[in-house]
Amino acid sequence: MLETLLSTLLPNVDWIDLWQACHDTFSMLGWSLLFTLALGLPLGVLLFLTGKRQLLAQPTIYGLLSFVVNVLRSVPFVILLIVMIPLTTLITGTSFGVAGVVPPLVVGATPFFARLVETALREVDRGIIEATQAMGATTRQIVFGALLPEALPGILAAATVTAITLVSYSAMSGLVGGGGLGDLAVRNGYQRFQTDVMVVTVLLLLILVQALQMAGDRLVTHFSRK
After folding, report:
1. DSSP string, 3-15
2. 62, 139, 177, 191: most buried, per Cβ within 10 A?
3. How far is CA 103 from CA 93, 180, 183, 185, in A?
């Protein structure tokens, strides 16, 4: 009965293709988010530490890092996808599918996340840093013992925003054959004028974004209480 109803309402939806598209989207999101957090967190910490009046204040290094971050953030993701095709092919052996999209996703999202991390660290009460310094703590101890724990709710909120941004980026990758729900929406929903496919893919992306936001809010609330 349910199968008949779905076939009537959504005649063009191939559920096997849809499942594969969901799997590809989760793969792109998972791998790109993992590498983005791994690269963006230390970059954000370095931006903070080398900033004006900070522990390792280095105007030249901060200016250079800030310039690179701003440049990468200003490039539209669709253009970044195309520009990075030679490098992506060199790294992964392909510029299509999940493997061909992860490098541009990481390059596009890492500067964004790093800036959010820097902002979260700037919101930490300076008195906490000064008190830790007064006790003779090293820079490493200050970062891992005071800065990161105090900024954790903000960093988790930044990770949530970044994950949602990666969902939208992964959907855009469908324009160049990146796979996932975006590719299905473009290839079937747009190019073949299959409105039902477009509606289903958009709904699934909305559900994914809502789920990520809810999970992120729960984590932020949990660690804010500690």
Report:
1. HHHHHHH-TT--H
2. 62
3. 12, 15, 17, 22
